[in-house]
Amino acid sequence: MPLSRPLRAIALVLSIAIEPSRAAENTPLVMFEKGDYLAAAKAGAAEGSAPSLALAARATLADATLRDAPCMECLQDAEALARRAIAVDANNMEGHIHLAVSLGYQARIIGPIRARFARFPEQAKEEIETALRLAPNSHWALSAAGGFNIEVVRAGGRFLGNLIYGATFENGVSYFHKAIAADPENPLIKLQYALALTGYAFDARRPEITAVLDSSVRSKPGNIYEEAMRQRAVRLLALLNENKVSDYLVLARKYQGFPE
Q1: DSSP characters for 156-225?
Q2: pLDDT in tens, 25-69
């Protein structure tokens, strides 16, 4: 039976009210929060705005870091998306951070010599400095700066790291402390700090690493990805508490994105 005019009007009003809700459920950010990273990346790239492209890069990085093995193609896709975000808006802080992070993960796959020839460290340093200038109190910018300083010193030594890139272990620790203070419930930042300390000087820093992992485990994740990172901290802390050092170091290296 066909609807009467009043009923058709009511149905039209209801459909208008429902459709925006459905649309909201399909935004790139909502997809990311649900853990549908590839869909979030595709949707963000299609939207084409700087924030959407930056989110697409973030989602691509999330997918890459959760894989069982390093994915160079994924990281290059994230790099390309971050560069597109910056091209649309040079003041998009997240675009600069995701570009630096994607280059850092790629460097771990190809090794320090090839990364140096490709000028990955110089590019990452520039992107992080730009992000800090745009958002000096951003926990993402601060943690990226912390990771860069410690990684450079780990790979090149204190003298060369400072001479060539102005990096120091002490600055790395300071940046991580500021990042944690800026977002104290974020388990990812604490996990990254613990992994950086592990790569730099596991034996000397083991008590601090244990404390940072314990803090990460007790944090309150804000989304599915942060919960996945908290679970990584759970596994690493359990290995430390059981004194399974070899297993811990292998797993930590995997979580840092190094190939086997």
Answers
A1: H-HHHHHHHH---HHHHHHHHHHHHHHSTT-HHHHHHHHHHHHHHHHHHHHHHHHHHHHHHHTS--SSHH
A2: 679 999 999 999 999 999 999 999 999 999 999 999 999 999 999
